[in-house]
C-alpha cells in the first residue's frame, strides 16, 4: 500500500541540463507547501486570462471543473473545459498511467500549463500546486480586480511519501457546524491531506443521527451546561456556564460532507467510540450501561467518564446496528471504533460482567474489551471494511484485521506494525494540536496542556527507526488531532490547527531529504497570505508575517 518514490537523479530533469534547469529553487517565488519532490525553476511565466481553455482527459473532467469553479470568484473568469482534442492553448490535463497513485508532473511555460497524472488525486494535487503558484488572492471568495494572474514557469515532479495524511476533529466535546466542517476539509485538501477523521461520539455529546435509535441524538446530543475553566476532578469544586450545548449531524448533513470531501480527494473516517467515552450513549439508552441502576445524563465536565458500555450480546447488536447505518453513510474503507480510555471500574464492580468474563473464558477486563472489539472487527470485515482503533486495542489482544492509531507515543504503532497490522501515527507528543503553541501560556487561550510549537510539529517523523523495511510498510502515515474540550468554536479551532497542520502536511507528504525547517519558513509568509485570503484564523508564528 505504501508508496515510495525513488527518483534516479538522471530522471529528475529531462534533456541536457541548462543554467535555468539548475537554478536553485526560489522559495518565495515557488512557495509550494508541502514541498514537492522535484522543483526546477524556469524563466518566465504563464498568464491566465478569460480566454484560457482547460483541455482535459475525460478522467479528469470533474477535477478540471472544480479548479475552474474555485478560480471563478477571485478572477471573474469563466474558463472553458474542453476535451483534449479541442483547439486552444492554456491548461492541459493528460492521463499518464505510468505515474504512481496521487503523483503528478507539472510543467508551466510561457505557452501554457501541462499536467500529467495517473489518477484524479494526482491531477487535483497538480492544480492545487498551480493555485499556490498564483498570487494568494486566488484563494479569495470574492472578485479581486487588477491582479495579474501569473503562474511562474516551473517543472515539478511530485508524489506523497505516505498514503494516510490526515487530521482529526472532535465534534463531541464541542459541536462544530457543518459549514465549518466543510471548510476544515477544504483546507486539508489544499495541503494535499487526504483523511478526515471525524470524531462523532463522546461522553459529552453524541453527534450523529442514527435512525434506528433516535434517542442517541434526541437525548445524547445535548448537555444542560458545561464546566467553566480547567477541569477539576472534584465535582463539588466545578462551576458551570448555565447554557445548554447541543448539536448533531443529520444523515443528510453527513452525506453532504462526505460528497464534498470526495470531490477534494478526502476520505472521511468516522469514529464511533466504544466501549468507553460512551456516557452520552448510556444517558440515551441506559440498557447499554455497565451501571444500569443510575443514569448520569450527558457528561458536563472534561476528563474521562467512568460510564462505559456493558458488553452484553444486546449491546453488541445495538452497536452493530449503529455501525450498519454508519457503513451506509461513509463509503470509505476505514471505520474507527475508538477503544481508548475505557476505564474498567464499572466492569470490575459489576458481578454480571465478572460472570461474563468467566463465561467467555477470558482472564480479565482487558481481554473482555478485546473480545468486544473483535465482535466489531468481524462485523466490519464481513462488510468489507477495516476497523481502526486507538492503541489501547492492543491490550488484551489485537483484533485480526485492526489498524492501530498510535496516540500514546509511537510504541503502540511499533508493536502493531511488528505484528503485521497497519498503523497510523498520531502521537500526543507531536500531533496533538490541542496543546499549547507557546511556552508563554498566559498569553494563549486556555488549552489542555502540553507544548507543541510549529518547529516541533514540522519536525515530526512518522516512521520509527526501529522498524525494518517490511514492518515500515505498515505505517500508512500520520495525522493531527484537534480535541475540543478547550476549543469552543471554529475560530479557536483554526487558531489551534493552523499553521501546525501546514507543518504536518509537509511531514506526511515530502520525502525526508526535502524537509528543511528554514526552507519551510521562507515559503511560509506567502502561505500565510493564502490562509488570510481563505479567512483562516491561524496563530501567527513569532517573526513571520504574511506577504502577497
Ligand atoms: C485519546 O487521546 N484519548 C485518543
Task: Give a topology summary.
Blueprint: H1 9-12, E1 38-47, E2 53-56, H2 61-75, E3 80-83, E4 90-95, E5 104-109, E6 112-117, H3 120-133, E7 150-158, E8 164-170, H4 178-190, E9 195-199, E10 201-202, E11 205-206, H5 215-218, E12 222-223, E13 245-246, H6 251-263, E14 267-274, H7 279-284, H8 313-329, E15 334-338, H9 345-348, H10 351-359, H11 365-382, E16 386-390, E17 403-406, H12 411-418, E18 423-425, H13 428-431, H14 454-458, H15 469-472, E19 475-480, H16 490-497, H17 500-509, H18 517-533
Parallel strand pairs: 2-3, 2-4, 4-6, 8-9, 8-19, 9-14, 14-15, 15-16, 16-17, 17-18, 18-19
Antiparallel strand pairs: 1-7, 5-6, 5-7, 10-11, 12-13
Helix pairs in contact: 2-3, 4-6, 8-11
Bound molecules: acetamide.
Describe the structure.
This protein has 2 domains: 9-158, Chitobiase/beta-hexosaminidase domain 2-like (Chitobiase, domain 2, 2-Layer Sandwich), CATH 3.30.379.10; 164-234 and 249-515, Glycosidases (TIM Barrel). Helix content is 32%, strand content 18%. The chain is built from 18 helices and 19 strands. Helix 2 links the parallel strand 2 (53-56) and strand 3. The two termini are 39 Å apart. Acetamide (ACM) is lined by residues 340-341, 390, 407.
Which geometry do the CA atoms define? globular
In whole angstroms, how far apart are the ends?
Answer: 39 Å
Strand order of the largest sheet: 8-9-14-15-16-17-18-19
User: What would you give as the CATH superfamily of the largest domain?
Assistant: Glycosidases
Strand content: 15-25%
Radius of gyration: 24 Å
What would you call the structural class? alpha/beta
Q: Ligands bound here? A: acetamide
Low-confidence parts, pLDDT < 50 over ≥5 residues? 1-22
Average pLDDT reading: 95
Estimate the helix proportion, in percent.
25-40%
The helix tally amounts to: 18
**How many extended strands?**
19
What CATH calls the topology of the largest domain is TIM Barrel
Characterize the largest beta sheet: strand count, sense, and whether it forms a barrel.
8 strands, parallel, barrel
CATH class of the largest domain: Alpha Beta
- Count of domain modules: 2
So, CATH architecture of the largest domain?
Alpha-Beta Barrel
Amino acid at each position: 500500500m505504501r508508496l515510495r518514490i525513488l527518483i534516479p537523479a538522471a530522471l529528475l530533469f529531462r534533456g541536457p541540463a541548462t543554467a535555468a534547469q539548475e537554478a536553485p529553487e526560489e522559495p518565495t517565488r515557488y512557495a509550494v507547501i508541502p514541498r514537492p519532490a522535484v522543483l526546477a525553476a524556469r524563466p518566465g511565466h504563464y498568464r491566465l486570462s478569460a480566454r484560457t481553455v482547460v483541455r482535459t482527459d475525460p478522467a479528469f473532467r470533474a477535477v478540471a471543473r472544480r479548479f475552474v469553479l474555485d478560480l471563478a470568484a477571485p478572477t471573474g473568469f469563466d474558463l472553458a473545459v474542453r476535451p483534449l482534442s479541442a483547439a486552444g492553448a492554456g491548461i492541459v490535463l493528460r492521463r499518464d498511467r505510468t505515474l504512481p497513485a496521487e503523483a503528478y508532473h507539472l510543467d508551466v511555460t510561457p505557452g501554457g500549463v501541462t499536467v500529467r497524472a495517473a489518477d484524479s488525486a494526482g491531477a487535483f494535487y497538480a492544480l492545487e500546486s498551480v493555485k499556490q503558484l498564483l498570487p494568494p488572492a486566488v484563494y479569495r471568495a470574492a472578485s479581486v480586480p487588477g491582479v495579474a494572474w501569473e503562474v511562474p514557469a516551473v517543472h515539478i515532479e511530485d508524489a506523497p511519501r505516505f498514503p494516510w495524511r490526515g487530521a482529526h476533529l472532535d465534534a463531541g466535546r464541542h459541536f462544530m457546524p457543518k459549514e465549518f466542517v466543510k471548510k476544515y476539509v477544504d483546507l486539508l485538501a489544499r495541503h494535499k491531506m487526504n483523511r478526515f477523521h471525524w470524531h462523532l461520539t463522546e461522553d459529552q455529546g453524541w453527534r450523529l443521527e442514527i435512525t434506528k435509535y433516535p434517542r442517541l441524538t434526541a437525548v445524547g446530543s445535548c448537555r444542560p451546561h458545561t464546566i467553566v475553566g480547567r477541569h477539576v476532578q472534584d465535582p463539588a469544586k466545578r462551576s458551570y456556564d448555565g447554557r445548554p450545548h447541543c448539536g448533531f449531524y443529520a444523515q443528510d448533513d453527513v452525506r453532504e460532507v462526505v460528497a464534498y470531501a470526495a470531490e477534494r480527494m478526502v476520505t472521511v473516517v468516522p469514529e464511533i467510540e466504544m466501549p468507553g467515552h460512551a456516557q452520552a450513549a448510556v444517558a440515551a439508552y441506559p440498557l447499554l450501561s455497565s451501571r444500569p441502576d443510575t443514569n448520569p445524563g450527558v457528561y458536563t465536565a472534561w476528563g474521562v467518564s467512568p460510564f462505559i458500555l456493558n458488553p452484553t450480546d444486546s449491546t453488541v447488536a445495538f452497536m452493530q446496528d449503529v455501525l450498519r447505518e454508519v457503513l451506509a453513510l461513509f463509503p470509505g474503507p476505514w471505520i474507527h471504533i475508538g477503544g481508548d480510555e475505557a476505564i474498567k471500574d464499572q466492569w470490575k464492580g459489576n458481578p454480571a460482567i465478572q460472570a461474563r468474563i468467566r463465561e467467555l473464558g477470558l482472564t480479565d477486563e482487558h481481554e473482555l474489551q478485546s473480545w468486544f472489539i473483535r465482535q466489531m472487527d468481524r462485523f466490519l470485515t464481513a462488510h468489507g471494511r477495516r476497523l481502526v482503533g486507538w492503541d489501547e486495542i492492543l491490550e488484551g489482544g489485537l483484533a485480526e484485521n485492526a489498524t492501530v492509531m498510535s496516540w500514546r507515543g509511537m510504541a503502540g504503532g511499533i508493536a502493531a506494525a511488528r505484528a503485521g497490522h497497519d498503523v497510523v501515527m498520531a502521537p500526543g507528543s507531536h500531533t496533538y494540536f490541542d496543546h499549547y503553541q507557546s511556552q508563554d501560556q498566559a498569553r494563549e487561550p486556555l488549552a489542555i496542556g502540553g507544548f507543541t510549537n510549529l518547529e516541533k510539529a514540522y519536525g515530526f517523523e512518522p516512521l520509527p527507526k526501529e522498524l525494518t523495511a517490511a514492518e515500515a510498510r505498515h505505517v500508512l502515515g500520520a495525522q493531527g488531532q484537534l480535541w475540543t474540550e478547550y476549543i469552543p468554536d471554529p475560530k479557536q479551532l483554526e487558531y489551534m490547527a493552523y499553521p501546525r497542520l501546514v507543518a504536518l502536511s509537509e511531514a506526511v507528504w515530502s520525502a525526508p531529504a526535502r524537509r528543511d525547517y528554514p526552507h519551510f519558513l521562507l515559503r511560509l509568509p506567502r502561505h500565510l497570505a493564502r490562509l488570510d485570503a481563505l479567512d483562516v484564523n491561524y496563530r501567527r508564528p513569532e517573526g513571520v508575517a504574511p506577504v502577497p
